[in-house]
Amino acid sequence: MMVEKTPILDTFTYVALLFGIMLVGFPILYAIIAATLPLEDVSQVPMSMIPGDQLFNNVNEAWSRGHLGTQLFNSFVMASGITLGKIIVSLFGAFSIVYFDYRFRVVAFAAVFCTLMLPVEVRILPTYEMAANLFGPLQSVWNFLGLDGVISWFAGHDIEVSLEFSLLDSYAGLILPLTASATCTFLFRQFFLTIPEELCEAAKMDGASPMTFFWKILVPLSKTNIAALVVIEFVYGWNQYLWPLLITTNPKMTTAVIGLHHLLPSPEDPPEWHIAMAGALIVMLPPILVVLLMQRWFVKGLVEKEK
Amino acid sequence: MIKKRSYFKSRKLPYLLILPQILVTATFFYWPAIQGIVASFQLSDPFGFRTQFVWFDNFIALFTDSLYLESVLTTLFFSGSVALVSITFGLFLATMANRVLKATTLTRTLLIWPYAIAPAISGILWLFLLHPSYGVVAIFIEDWFGIDWNPLLESSHAMLLIVLASAWKNVSYNFVFFLAGLQAIPHSLIEAAAMDGASPFRRFWAITFPLLSPTMFFVTVMTIIFSFFESFGIIHAVTQGGPGGSTNILVYKVYQDGFIGLNLGSSSAQSVVLMGLIILITVLQFKYVERKVQYTG
């Protein structure tokens, strides 16, 4: 925003920006260089800032040592599942809340929006218990009503009914609990409210059913918002830490971000930071690509989420 | 509550449409939250065989526990530092980027991608940079300040490490919002002030900064929430709350006491405290936002 000529300030602006970009980029640049070096170079103090030719070997080593193939696949399933789940659930939810009038509309709205901003981190233990046995609530009701006694009386001997369905170490367990978020629904609701009334009236006059209106008009109109949320939720899903840490004990079900710390050299090991950095680069690449390639929608979505 | 003037009439469809959201919310939010609140009033042995209702004992124990109070202070210091560093730096970069109209998109591309990096990975990158024997920044610190740098043993060094890793990851998020906020400020206001002879600095403090206050508020809230919760990955991957509990922030303590220590009552009470805190923040935010948001249609 150049209102008047201020050569000194302009020079300062460029220098400051360049400095800022370098400062923000340095950790990654340093990691990239480290990932191209052999062990004897990376353990030199200070490390050489000239890239080596070992990138391929280091990536290979990190890939096989860290079981990155399996873990990247798990991360991908989790991130896509969360993205898809959240968007579908919230599109339907927002459609119901905005375009229908029914008795429990306000109650449903309030119940969903109370969960806005409450991250899984504040309710980890009970959510974990819930995932460990999805039928826990039913079991509680069962025990509360003393139905074991009734059954035993009928059967003539002691019977203990235990209802169990566990989500531990499963993709459903990684995905489902994290689709309980109101932010997407809120965003779609805000967007639906800005859509002209005439569209719905015209559709009704043409005899379109609600679901035809939804698929033929509402969803195509929401394309930009959906694209933005795909970026945001994919990054969110890929970078989840606490929840996959709790719910997976089987190493085959771990996600890449969590598995990464197995590549960190401990004090007794040789300082293989080149392997650790190569692994880190592989794991951070997919979300970075998604953000950079879809930058326009991503920025729009991020800023819109604020409103 | 706002709804459309023209809407559809159907007896079952709206319920069917909202059902998935209600089911997921009830199963993974309401039930666990209620369980958590109930557990915070109970005392149970680690194997869950016996539970006893103890009223507010868990909370009283919590707020008289010096370790917990220490963790509260650690969290406040940590999130305050992260907010200060990442907001100042993000606002500064956005102001600069807003001045160079031509290269805004390029600058944004070059500054945006740390947003995509997982907190745990950010922690690992900074651990390497600040590693006592191999880190290049660590060597710089030792040479220039003559400090015996060791974030693996020294509390304040470990704190600096996690603050830097969190702030670095969060700068790009704040930058995007400040840049959008700056671009929304009417150009005419700035021009009018310039014509009245206000210098660029004067214009920033007298016009831009006050007009940016809603963005500032939002970014501050989001940064605090980030450092309270999402920084878990950094702590777990890098310091594990150490050395000597110096980076044991509240969310890590919930995990440690609940999952490692199996102290269910205390961990639940801590969760309830965090829940209350975040509800308070959300209510505050909505009260503030409501004043500036207008709906049309």
Strand content of chain A: under 5%
Series of H and E elements of chain B: HEEHHHHHHHHHHHH
Name the helicity range of chain B. Answer: over 70%
End-to-end CA span of chain A: 25 Å
The stretches of 5 or more residues of chain B where confidence is low (pLDDT under 50) are 293-297
Question: What's the total count of β strands of chain A?
Answer: 0
Instruction: Report the total helices of chain A.
Output: 17
Specify the number of helices of chain B. Answer: 13
Please tally the β strands of chain B and state the result.
2
List the quaternary state of the chains: heterodimer
Which chain pair shows the most residues in contact? Answer: A-B, 111 and 108 residues
Side by side, the strands of the main sheet of chain B go: 1-2
Describe the structure.
- The complex is a heterodimer of chains A (307) and B (297).
- Chain A has 307 residues and is mainly alpha-helical.
- Chain A contains 17 helices and no strands.
- The longest helix of chain A has 32 residues, at 68-99.
- Chain B has a two-stranded antiparallel sheet.
- In chain B, a hairpin with a 6-residue loop joins β1 and β2 (51-53).
- Mean pLDDT of chain B is 85; it is low at 293-297.
- At the A-B interface, α1, α4, α5, α6 and α11 of A face α1, α3, α4, α5 and α7 of B.
Notable traits:
heterodimer, A: 307 residues, mainly alpha, B: 297 residues, 2 strands, globular, disordered C terminus
